[in-house]
């Protein structure tokens, strides 16, 4: 899995990849998760899918 943050100094960089890995490993069939952090392309709100926006309660 590849994730990016809004800024390099994002406070959740240290814990979020680990938390994502733990959550994904609770799904049947997933035994190992590798989370890579990238900074390109830059993250923006437009990168959230329509379904993701609905789930998060963000206007679509």
Sum this structure up briefly.
The protein is an alpha+beta fold and 60 residues long. The chain has helices spanning 16-24, 50-56, and strands at residues 2-4, 36-38. Helix 1 (16-24) links the parallel strand 1 (2-4) and strand 2.
Contiguous uncertain segments of 5+ residues: none
**Got a strand count?**
2
Q: Helical proportion?
A: 25-40%
Radius of gyration: 13 Å
Largest sheet geometry = 2 strands, parallel
For the termini, the CA-CA separation is 25 Å
Individual helix count: 2
In quaternary terms, these chains amount to single chain
List the helices and strands and how they pair.
Elements: E1 2-4, H1 16-24, E2 36-38, H2 50-56
Parallel strand pairs: 1-2
Describe this structure in words.
There is one protein chain. This protein is of the alpha+beta class and about 60 residues long. The protein has 2 helices and 2 strands. It has helices at about 15-25, 50-55, and strands at about 1-5, 35-40. The protein has a two-stranded parallel sheet. Helix 1 (about 15-25) links the parallel strand 1 (about 1-5) and strand 2 (about 35-40). The longest helix has 9 residues, at about 15-25. The relative contact order is 0.22.
Defining key terms:
60 residues; alpha+beta; two-stranded parallel ribbon; 2 helices; 27% helix; globular
């Amino acid at each position: 899995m590849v994730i990016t943050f809004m800024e390099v100094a994002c406070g959740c960089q240290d814990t979020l990849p680990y938390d994502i890995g733990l959550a994904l490993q609770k799904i049947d069939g997933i035994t190992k998760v590798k989370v890579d952090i990238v900074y390109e392309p830059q993250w923006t709100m437009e990168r959230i899918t329509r379904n993701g926006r609905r789930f998060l309660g963000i206007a679509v």
